[in-house]
């Protein structure tokens, strides 16, 4: 019986999920941030020693790691040089010329990753039409070699202006610089798209991470070999897809958001399995809370992300983080308002009830005071929770206000909820999505305690709590698809690009992305593709990603006809279902369908997106104009949907085309094998409002068979998270052991 | 506390702030023009039914605290409000900043009556007048700066006044884009209506009103507590603009700051009389600059609302540069003079709280507009941007190089984006090494950005300052280097004035070199070196 292992290496804990045919088994170990590989290898060694895994049957190991993030945030990077076009070496430092905080006179910007003395200019220039204005002075590059050697450079980044239109200069410089014997990253290889600052920043980060991530992956490889485990571990990328170890080693910038992306991907997967393609994901841990949006089974993504203030222009999951977690500290501020977070009690001392010396009240202490947590059943190997310590801590809020300890505890939760409500509004309402059309999927140790009250505040009708709420990131690693994305900047009016040229470009990108996966063992026929055109109106600075869905007819102004009904038992993405069934000849499989649904057009008219069969073949020149017109039409519609208006008379510009190649993961049963539930009291006294405690049922998830229903008030214990059901809410366990809560 | 407990206070504070954030997000999302959509030159605010500012969302400080003047003007102009009324105005002499900034003010009715006002302000890319972009550097009266709008109801009871709309749009260069942006402002107001009504439904009108007052009192308590921590006393500082745009200068600004118990008074007596050129800063702009400074030297996390400003008194002599009388032109007051007002007020604070205040930053926005006919398409184009410079050194470290400071924070146009969109080439974009003032801590370096037109003659206008005067250093350090505007032609460097217009021929390079920030603390480096050499 083969098993797969998912390992999520966080700052404090390393979560391990072992997935066999009998569902996932979950383990938690301490992390070793000083040498991340050591802790992981030790944990696996312990699992082998305890007989939890047998090395021979491990088929694959996928991991998510904060190693790149930590190296970037702590500045522990390889010594890197940057080579730029003459006159532009400071682009990296000037950035977009803005400052991070408006009113802070003592603001700083993150130190440029390459200091000025290691930024070198060489004569060369390409114009905005891709023509050579000034040829590369190759000798000038050659002359840099001794200086770079002397400086002890460990990596080099090359970024020339307009290299995405004319990569030859970068390639030639790269050939010369290869003589140094250190890794060289060319911007035209990594991110051939426009906007020089974001491209330079991404390229430089990649170069500087290569020595660090390279040695980390080598240590893992050695450790795994010693334990007789598969040696090359794929890694979760910021985009939510898995990359082969060799790709991560070459493009480590792609794994910066590895951990959080794994969480959102896990949430997406368990949501889809339970029939919920539209989710707001809430990952609330000890110090912070991550929220993200999944729409139509697709994780919201951005190419405008930044980590530690450094822009990274490769696709990453669009995650909004605020400082609200179980360990967030509550205090009365100078203006006598009750504030919760962003300061946190952290892992040490932790909440007062952990009995590790904490005396300030936290969100977790408030839950304990209110009876939402049972002192004798703590999570994650903690000792018995100290109720008296929690009451003393919350008393620090209650006493000066002259209110009961329980009233203060309720206040702390209310304020924490208000902050999280605002965070969710940022990723939903402020981006044009009504949260009431989504389900709230809660995970992380503290998420399921807040989910129902939060959903009520936002008018969200349903809450989902997966059985693996505490280790969903690790599980997500095993459920995610293997994928690679690549793109090409164009920046020309869409109608001026010959269809043959565009088709050729898509072919090239497709071959490139497919090659990346196939060369690392993916079966060629299993690879699917999704194409995207980044379009904008000429003059705009931001573009919209429009799926180039071959077989997608936008803007047919029809009545509200049902165009698609999903079989409730369907799994996987909408696109894979549809395209596999109805793939027109000579089309690429796997093109993604844009969000399905109604569009609002100016004047209150409705338009629906329809899937039709037998679409025009873009490779046939005769159908080209139709195809371009459809793409343009899709852009106008998407613009109208997102921004409330479209301008069909204006020039649409093709900024870039991108392709995402992916191989779907094997089907897996995600129901965990719960250990038998401990002996629990039938009820406990819990507070939900100021009217006093009520008797809440106490149950364990291990005792909930599919179809089991629990009425609130209730407290549902699990191995790694506790779910709180306030009065009037009702939970049903589904066939995947996910709790579906009607918030009432 | 008016019956509002600390828990409800905090919950309402989040809710009220998110009303304005959602209004502003909708404004940005629905806007047509890049200036609002990309540069986010807009803000949204919520007022209680008495017209007091309760919450505000903004992305550049120049909008801070300026809308209360507009709301007051709207309330003064409309005798009887009806549901669905939306007032538009841009008159700088009635709470605007300069004519391109158009403000909407609308009452929100919920439950039994008036529950609140919402307002939003956006910088429109054109509002008429002689120059595209309505940044006329040579105007000598406000009549020459574009269309001036008093408080008028553009929507009455939810119905658009089409006569008024046609009048507005006939007077601007890109009417479709303008109307798109104005509709986006209306959409932001509608978001505000909806969210305030939600809050009334959730909390009740009375509790919500009490909550708004409690949030004001809360900010006031925190601001007073912060001011009380500052040392008591008075200080005065003077600095100047290079010129007024018509060639006369320098133009001094003087401020006296008095800290008494938990209040601050800022008095501009002794500042220059209003000037002939468009550098006059209307009182609302002066107030924004003062509020910015106070937020920056106290605690920037205090929610910005009317309560926060209660302990602050601003005295600006009528008819002066910082409180002009109509019809003085004002377009540059918002852009350039606001920066100098910050320099002056900070300079006074530096004497009172030396540890809290950095040396002067570049003190200009380096406004540059280039236009002409694109030889690639035969179509006219117009390009506008501001360029960053050096930030002042602080008591704790060097100033930041090449960054926007104080009243603005807009993004640059990437070189590749600029060259793709316009028939221009950027020849150089780099830090001006050594332009930050020397001292124990070095001021930030300015920027050099060189442009050349490709295949056509371009027209450029410059509205820049600190080309003569220099950003001051503090505690014995040197000032930053002044900026320079230079035309490079046939191997020659031809100096240009700070505020000018010129034709740019192919082969000629317009080189904008922005000022460095002032240094902080006596320079040790030079003396140390001398000592080394001597021994």
Kindly estimate the percentage of residues of chain A that lie in beta strands according to DSSP.
Answer: 25-35%
Note the beta-strand portion of chain B.
15-25%
Count of discrete domains of chain B: 2
For the sheet with most strands of chain B, the description reads: 7 strands, antiparallel
The largest inter-chain interface, given as chain pair and residues per side, is: A-B, 67 and 76 residues
Assign the structural class of chain A, choosing from mainly alpha, mainly beta, alpha/beta, alpha+beta, or little secondary structure.
alpha+beta
Rough shape of chain B? globular
Number of strands of chain A: 38
Fraction of residues in helix of chain A: 25-40%
Oligomer: heterodimer
Low-confidence stretches of chain A: 550-623
**How many distinct helices of chain A?**
17
Structure, briefly:
The complex is a heterodimer of chains A (744) and B (535). Chain A is an alpha+beta fold and 744 residues long.
Which tags fit this structure?
heterodimer, A: 744 residues, alpha+beta, 29% helix, B: 535 residues, 7-stranded antiparallel beta sheet, 5-stranded antiparallel beta sheet
Describe the structure.
The complex is a heterodimer of chains A (744) and B (535). With 744 residues, chain A is α+β, with helices and mostly antiparallel strands. Among the domains of chain A are: 77-213, Rossmann fold (3-Layer(aba) Sandwich); 346-410, no CATH class; 483-663, no CATH class. Chain A is built from 17 helices and 38 strands. In chain A, strands 13, 14, 15, 20, 23, 24, 34, 37 and 38 form a 9-stranded mixed β-sheet that branches. In chain A, strands 3-2-1-4 form a 4-stranded mixed β-sheet, with helices on both faces. The longest helix of chain A has 31 residues, at 196-226. Chain A is globular. The two termini of chain A are 43 Å apart. In chain B, the strands form 4 sheets. Chain B has a 7-stranded antiparallel β-sheet with strand order 2-1-5-4-3-6-7, with helices on both faces. Chain B has 2 domains: 6-218, no CATH class; 358-535, no CATH class. The longest helix of chain B has 29 residues, at 175-203. Chain B has 11 helices and 20 strands. With 535 residues, chain B is an alpha+beta fold. Chain B has helices at residues 6-30, 34-37, 67-77, 162-170, 175-203, 205-228, 283-297, 306-309, 331-352, 415-421, 525-534, and strands at residues 42-48, 53-58, 86-89, 101-110, 113-123, 152-156, 159-160, 233-241, 251-260, 263-267, 312-315, 367-373, 380-386, 424-432, 446-453, 458-463, 484-489, 492-496, 499-504, 509-513. Helices cover 30% and strands 25% of the residues of chain B. Chains A and B meet through helix 3, helix 7, strand 22 and helix 12 of A and helix 1, helix 5, helix 6, helix 7 and helix 10 of B.
């Amino acid at each position: 019986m083969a098993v797969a292992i998912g390992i999520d290496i966080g700052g404090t804990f390393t979560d391990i999920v072992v997935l066999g045919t009998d569902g996932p088994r979950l383990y938690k170990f301490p992390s070793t941030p000083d040498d991340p590989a050591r802790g992981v290898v030790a944990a696996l060694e312990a699992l082998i020693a305890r007989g939890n895994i047998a090395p021979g049957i491990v088929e694959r190991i996928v991991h998510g790691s904060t190693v790149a993030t930590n190296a970037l945030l702590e500045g522990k990077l390889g010594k890197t040089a940057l080579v730029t076009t003459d006159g532009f070496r400071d682009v990296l430092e000037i950035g977009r010329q803005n400052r991070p905080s408006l009113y802070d006179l003592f603001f700083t910007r993150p130190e440029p990753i390459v200091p000025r003395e290691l930024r070198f200019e060489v004569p060369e220039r390409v114009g905005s039409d891709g023509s050579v204005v000034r040829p590369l002075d190759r000798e000038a590059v050659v002359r840099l070699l001794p200086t770079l050697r002397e400086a002890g450079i460990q990596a080099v980044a090359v970024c020339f202006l307009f290299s995405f239109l004319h990569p030859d200069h970068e390639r030639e410089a790269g050939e010369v610089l290869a003589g140094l014997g250190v890794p060289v990253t060319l911007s035209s290889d990594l991110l051939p798209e426009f906007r020089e600052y974001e491209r330079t920043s991404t390229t430089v980060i990649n170069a500087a991470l290569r020595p660090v991530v390279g040695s980390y992956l080598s240590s893992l490889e050695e450790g795994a070999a010693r334990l007789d485990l598969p040696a090359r571990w794929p890694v979760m990328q910021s985009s939510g897809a898995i990359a082969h170890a060799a790709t991560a080693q070459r493009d480590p910038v792609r794994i910066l958001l590895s951990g959080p992306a794994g969480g959102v991907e896990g949430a997406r997967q368990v949501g889809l399995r339970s029939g919920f393609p539209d989710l707001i994901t809430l990952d609330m841990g000890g110090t912070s809370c991550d929220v993200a949006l999944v729409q139509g089974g697709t994780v919201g993504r951005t190419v405008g992300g930044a980590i530690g203030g450094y822009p990274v222009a490769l696709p990453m999951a669009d995650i909004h983080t605020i400082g609200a977690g179980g360990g967030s500290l509550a205090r009365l501020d100078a203006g006598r308002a009750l504030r919760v977070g962003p300061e946190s009690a952290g892992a040490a001392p932790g909440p007062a009830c952990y009995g590790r010396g904490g005396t300030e009240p936290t969100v977790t202490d408030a839950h304990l005071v209110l009876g939402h947590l049972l002192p004798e059943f703590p999570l994650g190997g903690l000792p018995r929770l100290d109720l008296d310590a929690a009451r003393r801590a919350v008393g620090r809020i209650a006493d000066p206000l002259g209110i009961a300890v329980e009233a203060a505890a309720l206040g702390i939760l209310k304020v924490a909820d208000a902050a999280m409500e605002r965070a969710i509004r940022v990723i939903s309402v402020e981006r044009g999505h009504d949260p009431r059309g989504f389900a709230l999927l809660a995970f992380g140790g503290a998420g399921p305690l807040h989910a129902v009250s939060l959903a009520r505040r936002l008018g969200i009708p349903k809450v989902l709590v997966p059985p693996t709420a505490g280790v969903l990131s690790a599980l997500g690693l095993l459920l995610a698809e293997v994928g690679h994305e690549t793109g090409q900047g164009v920046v020309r009016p869409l109608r001026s690009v010959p269809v043959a040229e565009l088709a050729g470009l898509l072919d090239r990108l497709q071959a490139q992305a497919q090659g990346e996966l196939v060369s690392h063992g993916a079966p060629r026929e299993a690879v699917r593709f999704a194409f995207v055109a980044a379009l904008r109106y000429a003059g705009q600075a931001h573009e919209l990603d429009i799926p180039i869905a071959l077989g997608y007819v936008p803007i047919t102004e029809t009545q509200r006809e049902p165009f698609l009904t999903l079989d409730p038992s369907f799994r996987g993405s909408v696109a894979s279902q549809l395209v596999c069934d109805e793939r027109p000849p000579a089309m690429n499989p796997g093109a993604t369908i844009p969000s399905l649904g109604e569009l609002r057009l100016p004047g209150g008219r409705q338009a629906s997106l329809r899937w039709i069969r037998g679409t025009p073949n873009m490779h046939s020149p005769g159908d080209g104009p139709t195809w371009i017109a459809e793409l343009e039409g899709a852009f106008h519609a998407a613009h109208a949907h997102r921004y409330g208006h479209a301008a069909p008379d204006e020039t649409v510009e093709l900024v870039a085309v991108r392709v995402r190649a992916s191989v779907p993961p094997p089907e897996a049963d995600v129901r965990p094998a719960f250990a038998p539930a401990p002996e629990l009291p039938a009820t406990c006294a819990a507070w939900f409002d100021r009217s006093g405690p009520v008797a809440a049922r106490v149950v364990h998830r291990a005792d909930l068979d599919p179809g089991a229903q629990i009425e609130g008030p209730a407290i549902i214990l699990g191995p790694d998270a506790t779910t709180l059901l306030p009065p009037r809410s009702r939970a049903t366990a589904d066939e995947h052991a996910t709790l579906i809560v009607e918030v009432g | 506390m008016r019956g509002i407990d600390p828990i409800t206070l905090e919950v309402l504070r989040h809710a009220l702030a998110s009303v304005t954030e959602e209004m502003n997000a909708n404004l940005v999302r629905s806007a047509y023009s890049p200036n609002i959509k990309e540069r986010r030159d807009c803000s949204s605010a919520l007022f209680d039914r008495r017209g007091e500012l309760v919450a505000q969302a903004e992305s550049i400080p120049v909008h801070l605290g300026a809308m209360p003047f507009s709301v007051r003007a709207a309330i003064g102009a409309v005798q009887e409000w009806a549901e669905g009324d939306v007032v538009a105005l841009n008159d700088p002499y009635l709470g605007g900043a300069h004519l391109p900034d158009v403000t909407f003010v609308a009452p929100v009715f919920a439950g039994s009556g008036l529950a609140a006002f919402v307002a939003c302000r956006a910088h429109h890319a054109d509002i008429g007048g002689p120059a595209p972009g309505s940044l006329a550097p040579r105007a000598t009266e406000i009549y020459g700066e574009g269309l001036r709008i008093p408080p008028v109801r553009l929507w009455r009871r939810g119905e658009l006044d089409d006569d008024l709309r046609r009048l507005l749009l006939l007077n601007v260069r890109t009417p479709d884009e303008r109307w798109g942006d104005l509709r986006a402002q209306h959409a932001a107001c509608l978001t505000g209506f909806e969210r305030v009504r939600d809050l009334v439904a959730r909390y009740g009108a009375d509790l919500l009103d009490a909550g708004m007052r409690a949030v004001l009192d809360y900010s006031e308590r925190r601001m007073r507590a912060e001011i009380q921590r500052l040392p008591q006393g008075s200080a005065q500082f003077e600095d100047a603009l290079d010129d007024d745009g018509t060639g006369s200068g320098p133009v001094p600004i003087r401020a006296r700051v008095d800290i008494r118990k938990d209040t601050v008074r800022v008095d501009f007596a002794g500042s220059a009389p209003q000037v002939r050129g468009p550098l006059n800063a209307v009182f609302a702009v002066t107030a924004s600059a003062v509020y910015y400074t106070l937020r920056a030297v106290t605690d920037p996390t205090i929610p910005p609302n009317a309560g926060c400003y209660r302990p602050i008194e601003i005295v600006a002599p009528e008819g002066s540069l910082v409180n002009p009388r109509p019809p003085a032109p004002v377009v540059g007051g918002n852009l350039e003079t606001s920066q100098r007002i910050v320099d002056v007020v900070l300079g006074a604070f530096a004497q009172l709280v030396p540890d809290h205040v950095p040396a002067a930053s570049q003190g200009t926005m380096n406004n540059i507009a280039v236009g002409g006919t694109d030889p690639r398409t035969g179509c006219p184009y117009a390009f506008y941007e501001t360029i960053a410079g050096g930030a002042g050194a602080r008591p704790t470290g060097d100033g930041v190089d090449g960054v926007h400071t104080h009243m603005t924070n807009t993004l640059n146009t990437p070189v590749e984006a600029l060259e793709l969109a316009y028939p221009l080439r950027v020849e150089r974009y780099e830090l001006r090494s050594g332009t930050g003032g020397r001292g124990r801590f070095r001021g930030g370096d300015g920027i050099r950005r060189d442009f050349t037109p490709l295949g056509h003659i371009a027209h450029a206008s410059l509205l820049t300052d600190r080309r003569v005067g220099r950003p001051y250093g503090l505690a014995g350090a040197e000032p930053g280097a002044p900026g320079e505007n230079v035309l490079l032609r046939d191997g020659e460097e031809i100096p240009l004035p700070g505020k000018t217009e010129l034709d740019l021929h192919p082969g000629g390079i317009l080189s904008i070199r922005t000022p460095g920030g002032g240094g902080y603390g006596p320079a040790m480096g030079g003396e140390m070196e001398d000592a080394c050499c001597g021994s």
